[in-house]
TrEMBL record:
EC top class, as a word: transferase
CDD domains (alphabetical): LbH_UDP-GlcNAc_AT (cd03351)
PANTHER family with a match to the protein in the record: ACYL-[ACYL-CARRIER-PROTEIN]--UDP-N-ACETYLGLUCOSAMINE O-ACYLTRANSFERASE, ACYL-[ACYL-CARRIER-PROTEIN]--UDP-N-ACETYLGLUCOSAMINE O-ACYLTRANSFERASE, MITOCHONDRIAL-RELATED
Lineage, top ranks: Bacteria, Pseudomonadati, Pseudomonadota, Alphaproteobacteria, Hyphomicrobiales
Protein name listed in UniProt: UDP-N-acetylglucosamine acyltransferase
Residue ranges of every copy of the UDP N-acetylglucosamine O-acyltransferase C-terminal domain listed in the record: 176-257
Length: 267
């Protein structure tokens, strides 16, 4: 059975799921929906049109559903949706969307957001992500499942990070990172594949060998990048991961592709 501490303020209209605990000095707005068996430890502020799934733990001084940090915002009833089973540590901020961005910021299930990490307006964040301390997303980013973003790293607005990517610490991410990529550096550059993550996702040695060979051909083969990209298209039939990477590249729109720093690649 959940409890609401007498010092908490829960506005009329808020929906609190069964078994959820609202700790001391929390503030819950009237348009908030919180699922079952959540634990808001203390000093949590949930505002705006925000929904939170079941079994989430939210630490002190997290602010969820705040207005987007966008000068065009005029108080429209845009939304933030957070999935189930998330851990949101101290000082985390997540903003609602903007009308021009579709009106929705979405965070998937099972995420672990370390202290002072930030999800900007209109971002789409997948399942089972880990944001280390002060990892930051600008607006309109797309983050795939099982992504790890290192501490103090910042992702430029409108950037895409594919599933199962690992981004090192203290990186400025200014380009789209392919699925399964490993990126590092002051201005993030592609260093290879996230082999550890792929093994955790049960990639066999044979699959790893195929994807590695594809990666070498695409990013370190002879000729310019556009020619190599065209030449590896038939390899999509060899492995679903290769097909996923090629589809991701084809869907690029706003940001350039994150490439290896030392390859001399040109689009």
């Amino acid at each position: 059975m959940g409890t609401i501490d007498p010092t908490a303020r829960v506005e009329d209209g808020a929906v609190i799921g069964e078994g959820t605990t609202i700790g001391p000095y929390c503030i819950i707005g009237r348009n908030v929906v919180i699922g079952e068996s959540c634990n808001l430890i203390a000093h949590v502020h949930v505002m705006g049109h925000t929904s939170i799934g079941a079994d989430c733990t939210i630490s002190p001084f997290a602010v969820l559903g705040g207005a987007p940090q966008d000068l065009s915002y005029r108080g429209e009833p845009t939304r933030l949706e957070i999935g189930s089973g998330c851990t949101i540590r101290e000082g985390v901020t997540m903003n609602v969307g903007t009308v021009k961005g579709g009106g929705l910021t979405r965070v998937g299930d099972g995420g672990y957001f370390m202290n002072n990490s930030h999800v900007g307006h209109d971002c789409m964040v997948g399942n089972n992500v880990i944001f280390a301390t002060s990892a930051t997303l600008g607006g309109h980013c797309e983050i795939g499942d099982f992504v790890y973003i290192g501490g103090l790293s910042a992702v430029h607005q409108l950037t895409r990070i594919g599933p199962q990517v690992m981004v090192g610490g203290v990186c400025g991410v200014r380009g789209d990172i392919i699925p399964f990529g490993l990126a590092n550096g002051q201005y993030a550059a592609l260093e290879g594949l996230n082999i550890i993550g792929m093994k955790r996702r049960k990639f066999t040695k044979e699959r790893l060998a195929k994807v590695r060979a594809f990666y070498q051909s695409l990013f370190h083969g002879p000729g310019i990048f556009a020619e190599r990209l065209n030449s590896v298209q038939p390899l999509a039939a060899e492995d679903p991961a290769i097909a996923e990477i090629l589809a991701f590249i084809a869907q690029g729109k706003h940001r350039a592709l994150c490439l290896p720093a030392d390859s001399g690649n040109k689009h």
